[in-house]
Each structure stands twice: as C-alpha cells, then as structure tokens.
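Repro:
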Amino acid sequence: MPSITYHGVGPRVAYERRIASLTQAQLAERAGVSLGTIRKVERNERGVSAQTLDDLATALNVDTSRLLPGSERPDDRVHRGMPALSRIIATCDVPDDGPVRPLQDLELAVAEATQWRLGAQYVRISRHLPPLLGELSRALASAAPAERAAIAALLVGACRTADAVAYKYGAHDLSARLVELMRWAAPQAQDPLLDSVVAYVRTETFFAAAAHDAGLRVLEQAIDRSPAPVGPATRASRGTLHMRAAVVAGRAANAGAAAAHLAEARALSEGEREGVFLGTAWGPDSVRIHQVSVAVSLGGDHVSQALAAAGEWAPPQALPAERRSGFWIELARAQLWAGRPDRAFESLKVARRVAPQHTREHRWVKEDAGTLRRLKRADAEELTQFAQWCQAS
C-alpha cells in the first residue's frame, strides 16, 4: 500500500496522552519512538506515518480513529485498503514471491488480527491484512505436508478478519469473494469446527442479498453437519450457529424458528463460561445479546421482549467491543420504536464510546440518528453533531 503521512494529529495525541496519565517520555517508550518525535508530533512540527499512528494508538490503548486529524475520515483509510485486498484475492492461487515467516509467527499475526476484528479496529485491519493475506497465500502454496492444514486454518482466520471490514463498509462483492476463499481453504485445514465457522460467516452474503430464508436453510444444514456437542469446543461451535440462525430467522420474520434456535443456543450455553471460540464470542452473555437482536429483527410486538431481555443489564467489559456496541445499537432501535428517544440516544452514545468505527458504519445507527434528529427537541446541538459524525440519513 502507498506510504501515507498524517499531519495535524498533535492535539489529539497530547489529549489522549494526558487522559492516560502518561508523560511524553512514557508514551515514547511504549510506542517505540523517540522522545523528540513525540515532542515534535504534539507541537505539530512533523507528521506521522500510518505505522507510527497505529503504534501511538496501541500505546495509548485507544482506537486509531481517535487520533486521526479532522480532515481525515476513518472510512477514507479503510476504503483505500480495499483495492489491495481485491488484488490479493485475485492472486491467492498464484501468489507473488516474497518472504514467509515461520508458522509460529504467522499464528501470532493472525491471532493479533483477530483481536482487531473483535475490537472493531477496522482501520488497522485495512492496513495490515492485505500483506498478511499475501504472505499466508505464499505460505500455503509452499507448505510442507505437515504444516499445510495449520496454514490453511490461518488463511481462513485472516480472511474472516478482512471480510469484517469489507462487509461492514459495504463492499459486499469483495466480502463474498473473501467468503469463497474461506470455503476453498477450509477443507484443507481438515477441521470440521472450521467448516462451522465458514458457515457462520457465509451468512453475511445472505444478509447482503436479503435472502434470509436461504441463509436459514444453509445454517440449519451446517448445524446438522456439525460435530456432536460433547465438549466446550463443540458446544460453542454448534451454539454459535444456533445464535446466528436465530437472527437470520428473525430477519425472515420466522418467529417460531427464531425462538427454537435461541432455545437451543441457551441450552448449550448453560454452565459454560463466556469466551471467544475460533474467533466468535460465545457464552450466556452472547446468547442474551442475541435474544435482544432477534426481538428487534422481528419488530412489532416483539420490541417489548427486546426491552425486557435487556432490562437494566449491560454487557460485561470482558466481551469483545464489537459485540458490546452491537448490543447498544440494537437496544437503541428498540427504545426508539418504544417511544423512548432520550434513552435511545444515550444507548447510541454508549455504542460510540465502546466501538466508534463499528458504530459509525452501522446502517441502523445512521437511520436511527436521522430519525432522532427529526423527532428530538432537547440537546439538539449534541444530536446534530452525532448525526453528522455518523452521516445519518
């Protein structure tokens, strides 16, 4: 990808550094840059590269988008990465020559990328995933038999992370191509649990096409093929498919199927600890969030069920940021429909604090912020600023 230098980030870096109670020297040490560089950046005497911006964000423990200058939109950075992703997919079976790190290093790189996806760090994903996918394609093409399955599994995981960006930013054709690459690589991993992961992600193509009945059939077939739920991993594998199927059924206005799949997911989650299994958050808290999501998807008389399921409960901090922000976005829609605009706006603001990139690109946020702006009379300035931030319809 072309080299980019960002100017005007100094005030944002200085502000976040003070919030984090760090000195300039401490920030420099954490970010791996010189003290002189930090001083010049904060005085706006020099720009920073995309890599340095990511390093500073990591050191400050903030979303990269919080450091971007006012003229630079996070979605601009993400969209600049799409052509590189497209090129990598087109050449995955005939990859360019280049270096390939040892398997252990590749595993660490994919694990880190998965954390970016769970944390809705889409700017970082768009920057780092194209070269990682290229490297994994080279690794798979030259893999020794003993390592081929492991590398194929890593390629599936990396594609899933890249797909999160493509799908959420509206590049549905690119998303579908990434899903097809996952479907090609998964059999080479020789892991039936990974087949369930691919079926879970493939649902996005049905969401994009509004083909919910077909998506439900595909998920139910995947559930039938999945290994028997006799241990934590297999229970998680089948349980996540049931959660996904419940949402798809809700979008298809099939309340009976939605309730049945939710009941299966709830039963499988009983006694399980919340965690991340093969890249998907799973456990009792995730099932509760999906209960709200399904009720909102069904709409109408089910809105009260969404509010009842949420109650005064809030997702625990241990849950991935993307899942927590999704809860607040869906709760906001239920509150808006129930005639509670003030609470809906508060929920949207929580979603923004939890995962700003995820919230900003969510279609429901844009729609609901636009509706709130038309309905609301108090706090008009704050609401207008929020609506402008997410480009509300």
